[in-house]
Amino acid sequence: MKEVQYNGLTFEPYIEKERIAARVKELADQIKKDCEGKVPLFICVLNGAFPFAADLFRAVDMDAEITFIRLKSYEGMSSTGVVKEVIGLSENIKDRTVIIVEDIVDTGKTIHRLIEDLKKKEPAELKIATLLFKPEALVCDVKPDYVGFEIPKKFVIGFGLDLDGMARNLEDVYQLKENA
Ligand code: 5GP
User: Fold this and answer.
1) What distance in angstroms lies between residue 77's CA and the mean position of ligand 1's atoms?
2) How many domains is the chain partitioned into structurally?
3) pTM over 0.85
4) Which pLDDT does position 89 carry in this prediction?
């Protein structure tokens, strides 16, 4: 695998698709176990989570539903902290087991805000599945239930994660190369 470039920045291969697939399967098995006897509703947070959500949802070998919402809190490479809902939730989640599917939890502000909103709709339980988690960057009181990979506080792209809209279709996750 080779380095890729976007906006004049160089990114190096970081998590290969085979590792992602294997980890997704493990998370799916865990979710299936935890949700036995229930029909969980997956809520995919667009845009970044769509490849992870598609893989995770198909790997969860049980009755389940999926829906999509869209929030935005990020401009370029630094979090603005401003979260705005672009596409709302039409499903009734009262008394449902809900699994929010995120691409990455960085400061945790996005997921924290979303959880506060969803709690008002009285789900039976609210869980968070995220492909990537940067524990060192976390400033909110949130704890993802299902984490693909814990990663350091470095900017990553690929497998749904973008740089100004690009790179989402890379099959692997790439990390910004320092001093490139
Ligand atoms: P948080 O609110 O947790 O700080 O940020 C969550 C959102 O910021 C993610 O859904 C994602 O869109 C964006 N984000 C955070 N870290 C990264 C990163 O390393 N790479 C990319 N491409 N987006 C990130």
Assistant:
1) 8
2) 1
3) yes
4) 87
